């Protein structure tokens, strides 16, 4: 949608924010893959990081591999089934992309995947590049997995966390190289698309800022984690002021007149 708007109105820029709610029931099999995080970037006619190719492949199906019912605040997931659906969506969207673009896997320098857990990206690429060696697999996806290994799942943001990790940590200059990108959402929709890294991309990276964000995190005890998990957001319509946690530049301060109140920390 952002690319379409920019194509029609080249002077416009679109701010894209990828975020999600990720919450599993305590003690459930999926609890270890929950997480939180967000990525923001702009789409414009003169990109500084990546030019997105016009070709894309898509796959959609009506499946119940992962979802959050209206009556629950926690997600439900069938882990093994979800893995199979993820891979099928990848294979089908890649087929469409390859037919439309005429490109083969060898035309890409690196690949970035939706990363519910880092092993999923490895499994996915092994399905596309049958017989790939462990060394070659590490070369084409390894640098994209670093931030996810440290921060965990970010759901809607995970592909772009992977792209950040790749551009920040690549051992070779990727200027002019094509990157394969696979985005997935349970339920399900998969998209394979691609982009070419721009010439001076290294000059506009936020590598140091990203490292500082990761280094500045606060560790929690298991009891603290459970306390925060069970704290919840009131749903009775009352007015509340929340504890002044100062873990970022902004905080969720409370609720007044049925509105969420945010303020600078």
Q: Can you describe this structure in just a few lines?
A:
The protein is of the alpha+beta class. It is 32% helix and 22% strand. Strands 3, 4, 7, 8 and 9 form a 5-stranded mixed sheet that branches.
CATH fold-type name of the largest domain: Peroxisomal Thiolase, Chain A, domain 1
Beginning-to-end CA distance, first to last residue: 34 Å
Major sheet size, sense and barrel closure: 5 strands, mixed
- Kindly estimate the percentage of residues that lie in beta strands according to DSSP: 15-25%
What does this structure look like?
This protein has 265 residues and is α+β, with helices and mostly antiparallel strands. It has 2 domains: 166 residues, Peroxisomal Thiolase, Chain A, domain 1; 32 residues, no CATH class. The protein contains 8 helices and 12 strands. The strands form 4 sheets. Strands 3, 4, 7, 8 and 9 form a 5-stranded mixed sheet that branches. The model has no long low-confidence stretch (mean pLDDT 92).
Map the helices and strands.
Blueprint: H1 2-8, E1 14-18, E2 39-43, E3 50-52, E4 57-60, E5 66-67, E6 76-77, H2 79-101, E7 110-113, H3 118-128, H4 134-141, H5 146-151, H6 158-169, E8 178-185, E9 189-197, H7 207-215, H8 222-231, E10 240-241, E11 250-256, E12 259-264
Parallel strand pairs: 7-8
Antiparallel strand pairs: 1-2, 3-9, 4-9, 5-6, 8-9, 10-11, 11-12
Helix pairs in contact: 2-3
């Amino acid at each position: 949608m952002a690319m379409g708007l920019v194509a029609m109105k080249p002077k416009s820029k679109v701010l894209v924010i990828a975020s999600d709610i990720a919450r599993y029931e305590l003690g459930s099999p999926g609890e270890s893959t929950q997480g939180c995080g967000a990525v923001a970037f702009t789409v414009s006619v003169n990109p500084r990081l990546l030019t997105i190719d016009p070709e894309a492949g898509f796959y959609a199906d009506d499946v119940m591999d992962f979802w959050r019912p209206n009556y629950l605040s926690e997600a439900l997931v069938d882990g093994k089934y979800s893995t199979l659906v993820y891979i099928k969506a990848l294979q089908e969207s890649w087929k469409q992309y390859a037919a439309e673009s005429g490109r083969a896997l060898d035309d890409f320098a690196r690949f970035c995947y939706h990363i519910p857990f880092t092993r999923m990206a490895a499994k996915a690429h092994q399905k596309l590049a049958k017989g790939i060696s462990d060394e070659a697999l590490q070369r084409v996806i390894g640098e994209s997995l670093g931030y996810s290994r440290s921060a965990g799942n970010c759901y809607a943001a995970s592909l772009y966390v992977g792209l950040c990790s790749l551009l920040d940590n690549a051992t070779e200059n990727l200027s002019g190289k094509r990157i394969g990108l696979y985005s997935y959402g349970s339920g399900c929709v998969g998209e394979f698309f691609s982009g070419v890294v721009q010439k001076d991309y290294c000059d506009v990276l936020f590598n140091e800022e990203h490292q500082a964000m990761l280094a500045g995190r606060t560790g929690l005890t298991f009891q603290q984690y459970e306390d925060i998990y069970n704290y919840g957001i009131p749903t009775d319509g009352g007015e509340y002021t929340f504890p002044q946690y100062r873990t970022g530049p902004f905080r969720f301060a409370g609720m007044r007149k049925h509105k969420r109140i945010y303020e600078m920390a």
